[in-house]
């Protein structure tokens, strides 16, 4: 059974146990795999998926040689056509920013928002991130013997901005875990959104540089941020915290998961916009992978997949 290698966000749903890595049954690599299975009739060519993601991982955690290396766990005894990778946010201080600026999980011990943003900006501007990302990409490519598999592609997803920063309606609301948590002022929301934009730009630039070393692109960057327009926190007319608003495509701390049953469906059309972040990432990533793999392998009657996973 051909495989797909995944290192990506945890997604929604549960995996039957509350383990540290929190692999969601509705994470987008699983949904992509299910979509592929829905239009593959030959059981011998069914798509297999190695879901190796782990919430909170950094690039260093994924690299070969570590105690919990996802690259080392990648089973290469079966051929793979592509890897799904979601990484970078933890390296660039995502949790520290969300903790210090928004949630304040540790109250006064959470540090200041300004310091967290300054650290993140320094990390985004520094050379280490590009170097580590390139090292990870090359480890994955070398592990699958990419010279013998010219169609093998790594898909890297970006991140979505969390807030609508155009309206003042949210200025007096907070997502903080304690009394007197930080107010969601427009200025703070703009800073948070700018952080996401900067991370996406850095990922895209790093991937462009990596691809320049090859005759054809080996890595695809998928930016799905635009799909979230109208579905962020602090949309007009929404009183936060609104745990019941299904049109918000992020989950609040302590909110319900959308791990309900799903209905079988045909492969998604190119203009589909579904109702949570895993589905949206799945749609964009699926289209990018389809275009890349199908173009390269148009004369071959085989499709296999393999995702790598990191995220938050």
UniProtKB/TrEMBL annotation:
<dbReference type="GO" id="GO:0006629">
    <property type="term" value="P:lipid metabolic process"/>
</dbReference>
<dbReference type="GO" id="GO:0016788">
    <property type="term" value="F:hydrolase activity, acting on ester bonds"/>
</dbReference>
<dbReference type="InterPro" id="IPR036514">
    <property type="entry name" value="SGNH_hydro_sf"/>
</dbReference>
<protein>
    <submittedName>
        <fullName>Lipase 1</fullName>
    </submittedName>
</protein>
<dbReference type="InterPro" id="IPR037460">
    <property type="entry name" value="SEST-like"/>
</dbReference>
């Amino acid at each position: 059974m051909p495989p797909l290698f995944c290192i990506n966000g945890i997604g929604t749903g549960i995996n039957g146990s509350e383990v540290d890595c929190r692999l969601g049954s509705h994470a987008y690599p699983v949904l992509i795999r299910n979509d592929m299975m829905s239009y593959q009739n030959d059981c011998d060519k069914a798509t297999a998926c190695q879901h190796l993601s782990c919430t909170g991982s950094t690039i260093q955690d994924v690299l070969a040689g570590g105690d919990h290396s996802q690259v080392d766990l990648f089973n290469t005894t079966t051929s793979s056509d592509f890897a799904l990778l979601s990484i970078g946010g933890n390296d660039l201080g995502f949790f520290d920013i969300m903790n210090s600026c928004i949630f304040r999980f540790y109250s006064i011990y959470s540090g200041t928002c300004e310091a967290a943003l300054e650290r993140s900006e320094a990390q985004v501007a520094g050379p280490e991130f590009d170097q580590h990302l390139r090292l990870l990409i090359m480890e994955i490519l070398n592990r699958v013997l990419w010279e013998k598999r010219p169609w093998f592609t790594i898909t890297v997803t970006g991140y979505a901005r969390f807030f609508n920063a155009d309206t003042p309606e949210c200025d007096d609301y907070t997502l903080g875990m304690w009394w007197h948590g930080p107010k969601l002022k427009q200025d703070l929301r703009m800073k948070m959104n700018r952080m996401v934009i900067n991370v996406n730009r850095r990922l895209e630039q790093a991937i462009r540089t990596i691809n320049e070393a090859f005759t054809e692109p080996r890595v695809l960057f998928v930016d799905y941020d635009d799909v979230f327009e109208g579905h962020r926190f602090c949309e007009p007319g929404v009183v936060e915290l609104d745990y019941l608003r299904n049109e918000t495509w992020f989950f609040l701390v302590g909110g319900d998961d959308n791990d309900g049953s799903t209905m079988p469906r045909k492969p998604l059309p190119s203009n589909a916009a579904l109702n949570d972040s895993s589905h949206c990432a799945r749609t964009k990533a699926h289209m990018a992978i389809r275009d890349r793999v199908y173009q390269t392998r148009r004369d071959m009657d085989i499709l296999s997949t393999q995702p790598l996973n990191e995220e938050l």
